[in-house]
């Protein structure tokens, strides 16, 4: 895996991919590189204006790109349902759960969930469940790649208060949502295996990458620190997207794997990444799955029950 880059990506001709949060940062780079390799890429974005601007920019950089834009607000389950109901393809070869918010002040989604847990985890949980029939129709070879963070190590999910109602600290809430991403991947991989499915569920993280996500960080001091870090030590979104693209396309990727940068999890080419052992806790993963089904109202395909 040493030195893997986009030149090593296998051909994606004939594959249909959805990338959430594809209008900027990691999502944009991932969508562009998948399109360059021949995939039909759906840019799943919250803002129509930003989505169209991203598609125009992408076509300028990759004239033959087969891309389209579709709106989805992961903080609004009605929007997630609309996206799935109007999805125009019978099959889906790749779903990249990339969109997210980081360390924002306390707020709630349209459905009343704490924003970071609601967008980063519950929105993607619901979207993946609703698109599952299309993923199953594309096996073997279909994948779900969920983008987590090395910051997941800061906090576990709170079994007593998953929605953060008792107390709120923006960085702890972010870490919990990223732990939830890994627990979701673990539970999904296990359920797919138990069902005899060849769909691969994997996770990835960008290390410390300059992606623009810090713009939403609450607190002027925190934003300034993030901006300084971006300038001094962060790798570019181009490099930060490599672990995501590896997890999405490389033949060696295995279910429930976690890919990140090779150098201290911060920078470099894709490599297997350390993850907190608690992110492979079967009991907690199943608890989170059940809670997520109740909170979203999305009951998954019975083949994975």
TrEMBL record:
Record key words, sorted: Oxidoreductase
Protein name in the entry: SDR family NAD(P)-dependent oxidoreductase
One protein family per Pfam: adh_short
GO molecular function, one term: oxidoreductase activity
Originating organism: Streptomyces roseirectus
UniProt family annotation: Belongs to the short-chain dehydrogenases/reductases (SDR) family.
């Amino acid at each position: 895996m040493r030195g893997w880059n986009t030149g090593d990506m296998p051909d994606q001709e004939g594959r249909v991919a959805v990338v959430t949060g594809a209008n900027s940062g990691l999502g944009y780079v991932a969508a562009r590189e998948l399109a360059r390799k021949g995939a039909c890429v759906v840019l799943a974005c919250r803002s129509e204006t930003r989505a169209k601007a991203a598609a125009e920019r992408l076509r300028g950089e990759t004239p033959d790109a087969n891309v389209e834009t579709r709106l989805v607000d992961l903080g609004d389950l009605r929007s997630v349902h609309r996206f799935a109901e109007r999805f125009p393809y019978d099959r889906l070869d790749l779903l990249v759960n990339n969109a997210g918010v980081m360390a924002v002040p306390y707020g709630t989604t349209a459905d009343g969930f704490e924003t970071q847990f609601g967008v980063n985890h519950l929105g993607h949980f619901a979207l993946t469940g609703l698109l599952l029939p299309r993923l199953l129709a594309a096996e073997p070879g279909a994948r779900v790649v969920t983008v987590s963070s090395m910051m997941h190590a800061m906090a576990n999910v709170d079994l007593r208060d998953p929605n953060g109602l008792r107390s709120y600290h923006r960085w702890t809430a972010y870490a919990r949502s990223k732990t939830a991403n890994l627990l979701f991947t673990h539970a999904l991989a296990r359920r797919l295996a138990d069902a005899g499915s060849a769909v691969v569920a994997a996770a990835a993280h960008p290390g410390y990458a300059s992606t623009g996500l810090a713009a939403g960080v609450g607190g002027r001091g925190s934003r300034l620190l993030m901006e300084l870090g971006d300038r001094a030590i962060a790798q570019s979104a181009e490099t930060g997207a490599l672990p995501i693209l590896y997890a999405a396309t490389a033949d060696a990727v295995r279910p429930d794997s976690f890919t990140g940068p090779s150098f201290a999890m911060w920078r470099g080419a894709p490599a297997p990444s350390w993850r907190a052992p608690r992110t492979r806790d079967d009991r907690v993963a199943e608890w989170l799955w059940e809670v997520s089904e109740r909170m979203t109202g999305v009951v998954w395909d019975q083949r994975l029950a």
